[in-house]
Amino acid sequence: MVTRSAPARLLVETREIDPVEDLLAYTDPSHPLVWQRRGDGMAGIGAPVTLVGGGHDETLGERWRAIAERAEIDDPLRIPGTGLVGFGALTFDRESSHASTIVVPGVVVGRRHGRSWITTARTADAPAPGPRAIGYGPHWSATLGPGSLSADGYMSAVRDGLAAIAASEVSKVVLARDLAGTVPAGADLRRLVRSLASGYPDTWAFAVDGLIGASPETLVTVEEGTVTARVLAGTAARGADPDADTAASLALATSTKDQDEHQFAVRSVLEALGAHTSALRASEQPFTLKLPNVWHLATDVEGRLSGAASALDLVAALHPTAAVAGTPTPRAIEVIRRLEPFDRGRYAGPVGWIDAAGSGEWAIALRCAQFDPGEAGEPIPLTAYAGAGIVAGSDPESELLETRVKFRPIVDALA
């Protein structure tokens, strides 16, 4: 059911169950619905209600509240992820031709801190669904090639971005490029999620409405009134040996270009959250975050929620951040529209979940690919994306190399 007007009344029931080892076994192989990190998370199947919005629809928060207010919820556990939950994938650009969606699964199987549960959600006239483990399909690999923007085309776009900076149009702009490909018809897409989750356990592994990836960047988390966010901006490839790796981390930490880029991103997050929070604070200096393939400059932000704002309201206030768009953000979006020959869709947009109380976890959809419905029996088309922040002094070839490093998680998993 696609909800656009009067919300459905849902009957939602959560019960604790014996420990579940493999959440992915409880989601659809062709249309997985997953949110997972360090083994904890949720997997869903079915969709009694799906909210659909054009672009980054600001009414999604209001429409979600209407669903939550009408729902009859039986949740004795009351821990993050139980009760009524919606999985969301929102577009990067408000003018995107792609849809933003929030999916309420018919069945959610979850795990957190050693406890497992099942949640069912149905309309009053529908039978109660039940969980069912689904065996994995055969291994597969994707065929990938250049997308709309070639390597040379990307370096040309970077030079145009530098010209916009020199003309004082923007201080920073994040430019992306794409890869296009296919996976075999009937491919079990859970295998991609599993590969990303096992290879990058400290990231958010996600699958929502065909968008699958592993993001290192938390956009915002709301839990019992506490608001947290992690800002990532500034990147360096890992070194080939311990000495080279230490040198790469040190070079990133002392890079004026990367420090400037990072501070742009931190300021944009603090400004966006300020209207909805109190006691907001961020560390004075970023730390270097180590991932399997890259180093990032990172800053953690924390505050207390004020008023009746929900996680979706904070998502709307935060997105797009300077980390994925640029500074000043409205002008950077205009430059991106001018220089990128494609619609990003949900790439670099918010992805995550929200519950009936407005709590939730949201990341920025990075290191990801969008899988689009194809003809029955035909290969499934996909588009993968990676980007880099351009500031004064950026080198086009170095920025191209940064996108190659950022492509590595999704490209390796697709292989």
Notable characteristics:
single chain; 415 residues; alpha+beta; Anthranilate synthase; 13-stranded mixed beta sheet; eleven-stranded mixed beta sheet; 8 helices; 26% helix; globular
Task: Describe, in plain words, how this protein is organized in 3D.
- Helices cover 26% and strands 36% of the residues.
- The protein is globular and about 60 Å long.
- The two termini are 35 Å apart.
- It has one domain (2-127, 141-414): Anthranilate synthase, CATH 3.60.120.
- Strands 2, 3, 4, 6, 9, 10, 11, 12, 13, 14, 20, 23 and 24 form a 13-stranded mixed sheet that branches.
- The mean pLDDT is 91.
- Strand 13 and strand 14 (211-215) form a beta hairpin.
- Helix 3 packs across helix 8 (396-414).
- The protein has 415 residues and is an alpha+beta fold.
- The protein has eight helices and 24 strands.
% residues in beta strands? 35-45%
> How many strands, which pairing sense, and closed or not: the largest β-sheet?
13 strands, mixed
| Proportion of helical residues | 25-40%
**CATH topology (fold) name:** Anthranilate synthase
CATH superfamily: Anthranilate synthase
Mean pLDDT: 91
Q: Show unreliable segments.
A: none
Number of strands: 24
Q: With helices defined by DSSP (H or I, 4 residues minimum), what is the helix count?
A: 8
Domains counted in the coordinates: how many? 1
CATH class: Alpha Beta
Silhouette: globular
- Class computed from helices, strands and strand pairing: alpha+beta
- Which architecture per CATH? 4-Layer Sandwich
What's the end-to-end separation, in Å?
35 Å
Write down the Rg.
21 Å
